[in-house]
Amino acid sequence: MIIPEKNLMKLANGSDVRGVAIEGVADEPVTLSTDAANVIASGFLDFLAEKTGKKKKDLRIAVGHDSRLSAGDLKKAVLNALTAAGVVAVDCGLASTPAMFMSIVFPETKMDGSIMITASHLPYNRNGLKFFTKDGGVEHDDVIAILKNASRNPVVEGDLAKVQKYDLIERYGHHLRKKIRQALGGENEPLKGMHIVVDAGNGAGGFFATQVLSRLGANTSGSVFLEPDGHFPNHIPNPENKQAMAAIKKAVLDSRADLGLIFDTDVDRMSAVLKNGKEISRNALIAMMAAILAPDYPGSTIITDSVTSDELTIFLEKELGLKHLRYMRGYKNVIDECIRQNKAGTVSPLAIETSGHGALSENYYLDDGAYLAVKLLIAAAKARAKGKKLSDLVAKLGEPVEGREFRLKIKGEEDFRGYGNDVLQKFEERAQAAGIKIAKPSYEGVRLVFPDGWALLRMSLHDPNMPLNVESRKAGGVEVIADKVKELLTGFTSLDMSVFEK
């Protein structure tokens, strides 16, 4: 059976593939079927063989998954495609997305490529495929090429008896433990005396409590939702979710822990909570990671997405002596810019989004929530040894008084992206004519600067809407700025302005 290209292309989602994998939600039919996963895996094989110059039978491919309900069936479909082509196929079972990339790096595995079955924090009925080569995660254009390949490949059945198994998460845990031990003087239990709780959101991150923290001597009592459960019964496994952050905050305060860590489903994102219940997420997480890295990379450039606060810029540049480059939203966009900066001779140790996606140049530019947690733990242990607190690192970080995101839907426009770009052009022209300062350079959308705050209007990465982020340094300022933005958008009849209604 051949699946039409137009059907497969609907599964493209930035730099990965995503769709509805199981029934159960009204009006959401299955789009990522096992047959689709089968031919997409074959398409990745075609792509990888061309990229590496190897014959398919000489390739080594690792396959892993998070806790989603559809993972087992999709994995079988992928492994059928791999074994049918004679590939050395390795089933890594429950794993994290960063671990799947590291299967290419570890000398014990030396994979040519890997496939992670995950849809990050999306609802239980969704799933997807992420692809890695030795160069890291594939790009959007690569995904399109993989799907085009897939549209030419029939569904195939292989021999699952030939699939090898490997406990990748155990090897990955060893890798993380080694990093912490080396940084803290080589002791076997360098975290002894520290109480650290983990919220894995019933995703794949429970290993961090059992196979990293506990083995390094930490007390992990009070950790929550470590058991994999694809129904995600407790909260959305997403550090940006308010309910999720409330859960890890409660776990920290109830158990009187020193630190709390929360991961998303496939552990490529994290946020933290300090002993006093203060969240280390979004701007604070960026500031914390930058402060940890600053002594080793003085004067370097931190790459973030476009919606970070002015207070973060002040902290990075005035307090840490670093440079701040606001780039486009989308973790791959931020990471790719970091790579470009380093290749051009500008030292940039960190690319990080407010979402919690953070990649370090020292760690293969891999967005890895567990690695961020490792850096945080090392800093916490060093601070503790000196009688200091982790929070001291960001004590001088300011915060806006107010902040809000408005999402203006574009209705009735087939070419919604073209319409949105026209809105942005006229929006900038009107702001300039009104004497409002426009931040330059802007790598995404139009950022207006007001005496007490700012507003950023941009196009959504994938959807027909225009997010508007507004922050203010005084109470009531968001409403004032939003009203001025609304005036500048008068006459755009396809924009849903109801979000401004009080």
CATH topology of the largest domain: Alpha-D-Glucose-1,6-Bisphosphate, Chain A, domain 3
Which stretches are low in confidence, meaning pLDDT under 50 for 5 or more residues running? none
Report the CATH superfamily of the largest domain.
Answer: Alpha-D-Glucose-1,6-Bisphosphate, subunit A, domain 3
* Category from helices, strands and their pairing: alpha/beta
Net shape = globular
CA-to-CA gap between the ends? 54 Å
Number of helices, where a helix is a run of at least 4 consecutive DSSP H or I residues: 14
Proportion of strand residues: 15-25%
Architecture (CATH level 2) name of the largest domain? 3-Layer(aba) Sandwich
Family: Belongs to the phosphohexose mutase family.
Keywords: Isomerase, Magnesium, Metal-binding, Phosphoprotein
Cofactor: Mg(2+)
GO molecular function: metal ion binding; phosphomannomutase activity
In short:
The chain is 35% helix and 19% strand.
Protein described:
It contains 14 helices and 22 strands. The chain has 502 residues and is α/β, with parallel strands linked by helices. It has four domains: 5-166, Alpha-D-Glucose-1,6-Bisphosphate, Chain A, domain 3 (3-Layer(aba) Sandwich), CATH 3.40.120.10; 168-278 and 375-386, Alpha-D-Glucose-1,6-Bisphosphate, Chain A, domain 3 (3-Layer(aba) Sandwich); 281-367, 3-Layer(aba) Sandwich (Alpha-D-Glucose-1,6-Bisphosphate, Chain A, domain 3), CATH 3.40.120; 402-500, TATA-Binding Protein, CATH 3.30.310.50. The model has no long low-confidence stretch (mean pLDDT 97).
